[in-house]
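Please decode residue identities from the backbone states below.
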């Protein structure tokens, strides 16, 4: 049930009694996607004799077995470690040096990620005041506290080294002495500086560059976005920037993801003899990743794009998100939460029986904002949009969040006349390259045939009219793209590459 709750949030499970930990509880933790891999599991002491005097109904051996079982479950089921902190008391009534050494041994064996160490005292009104003696000297308690802290620090720093260069999701909790401070998915304390105000309560991406005694320090991960209508030179601009600033390109195009869909969408040609997708020597992500038989949507894109961006950042390179699919770009720059809405086959069949005009009118009543930019002739998109809007009528109003990245948005400014000329030339080139053959090679019932450049072959018979319609529809699409992008006031519209380069250089400082 928790997995189905919309929104970006994490669940923490803290301070359970080891005695109450069952296998079903461990399974529930592992199976919950929203559960962050953190657990505070109090040990109190590594000595069985001390645990007995504390009236603790478990032994160190039982605790260790539970500790290992929890760690193993997370590794096997989720492929990740779980951050386990603990509570411990030093200088408990009658605690001998030998008994304390057993706690030291426990710290070394289990290598906790954090520990809250308390020095025993008989507080007023407690059972300890009535029944127990505070018979370990204060100086000795302090020394034992330090011995455990030193063991803990050594292990924590050693494990933290693996985080250097990684990009972590961080929930910002407070601002202290000029630093934002938050917790990562696996409960590491992370601090970073940012000029942006109002980040408390937001999720951000932080690239780690420094190890602290009990935490990590980094900088907000930077992302460059190159956008604009079709035929404005986004791919070339992104490649030029990638060459200049050691970057890689993440495609934000809803059609470039498909294999065998090439000519009609002006897919950039892949370099020869490369396993991954390289264009002119620059690695491109999210091109040719799925077959034309499969469905792909913006929610999947956001997940894939964030993974690719983190991968690029972790290798010390600059991620450049480039494309013209407005919603795909907005999903990242506006950090949109997409509700999990499973396709309803019965409802879809009812909708697919209607005309594009009827579908558009239905969608217009549900989501006026989305209707302004959607392709009125794309039945597949209209059906899915109605399906989502029926469940979440306020989708575009309530699902935006603070951006997870520090973002520079560059819009390529080209005059309408030039865009039109480029589109006409591009379409003529597509025909020469064999667009007709590519279209005819698609499965006849493929929903991708609703795409501009493909659907016209079904709607018209005369080749001249087909070509003219592709040009008209593509130009109309470019105008819709501009309508979408005009919503975003953070975009810097620039004509010359030299100006773009200056902006990027300043941004990356």
């Amino acid at each position: 049930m928790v997995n189905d709750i919309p929104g970006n949030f994490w669940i923490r499970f803290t301070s359970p009694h080891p005695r109450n930990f069952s296998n079903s509880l461990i399974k529930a933790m592992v199976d919950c996607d929203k559960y962050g891999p953190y657990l505070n599991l109090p040990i109190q002491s590594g000595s069985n004799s001390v645990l007995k005097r504390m009236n603790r109904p478990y032994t160190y051996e039982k605790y260790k077995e539970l500790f290992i079982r929890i760690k193993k479950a997370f590794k096997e089921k989720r492929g990740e470690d779980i951050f386990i902190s603990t509570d411990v008391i030093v200088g408990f009534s009658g605690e001998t040096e030998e008994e304390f050494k057993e706690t030291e041994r426990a710290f070394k064996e289990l290598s906790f990620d954090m520990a809250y160490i308390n020095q025993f005292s008989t507080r007023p009104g407690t059972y300890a005041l009535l029944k127990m003696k505070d018979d370990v000297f204060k100086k000795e308690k302090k020394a034992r506290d330090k011995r455990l802290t030193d063991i803990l620090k050594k292990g924590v720093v050693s494990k933290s080294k693996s985080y250097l260069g990684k990009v972590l999701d961080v929930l910002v909790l407070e601002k202290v002495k000029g630093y934002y401070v938050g917790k990562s998915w696996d409960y590491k304390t992370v601090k970073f500086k940012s000029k942006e105000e109002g980040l408390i309560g937001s999720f951000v991406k932080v690239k780690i560059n420094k190890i602290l005694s009990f935490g990590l320090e980094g900088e907000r991960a930077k992302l460059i976005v190159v956008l604009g209508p079709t035929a404005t030179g986004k791919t070339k601009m992104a490649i030029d920037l990638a060459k200049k600033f050691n970057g890689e390109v993440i495609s934000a195009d809803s059609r470039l993801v498909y294999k065998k869909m090439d000519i009609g969408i002006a897919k950039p040609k892949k370099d020869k003899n490369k396993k991954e997708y390289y264009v002119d020597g620059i690695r491109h992500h999210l091109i040719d990743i799925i077959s034309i038989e499969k469905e792909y949507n913006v929610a999947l894109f956001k997940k894939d794009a964030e993974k690719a961006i983190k991968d690029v950042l972790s290798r010390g390179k600059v991620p450049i998100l480039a494309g013209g699919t407005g919603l795909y770009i907005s999903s990242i720059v506006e950090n949109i939460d997409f509700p999990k809405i499973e396709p309803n086959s019965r409802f879809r069949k009812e909708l697919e029986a209607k005309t594009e005009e009827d579908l558009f009118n239905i969608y217009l009543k549900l989501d006026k904002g989305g209707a302004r930019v959607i392709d009125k002739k794309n039945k597949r998109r209209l059906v899915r949009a109605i399906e989502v809007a029926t469940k979440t009528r306020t989708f575009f109003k309530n699902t935006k969040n603070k951006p997870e990245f520090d973002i520079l948005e560059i819009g390529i400014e080209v005059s309408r006349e030039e865009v039109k000329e480029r589109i006409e030339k591009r379409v003529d080139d597509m025909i020469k390259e064999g667009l007709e053959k590519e279209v005819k090679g698609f499965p006849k019932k493929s929903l991708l045939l609703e795409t501009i450049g493909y659907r016209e072959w079904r709607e018209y018979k005369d080749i001249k009219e087909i070509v003219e319609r592709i040009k008209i529809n593509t130009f109309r699409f470019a105008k819709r793209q501009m309508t979408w992008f005009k919503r975003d006031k953070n975009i810097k519209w620039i004509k010359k590459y030299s100006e773009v380069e200056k902006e990027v250089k300043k941004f990356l400082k």
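Observation: The chain has a mean pLDDT of 91.
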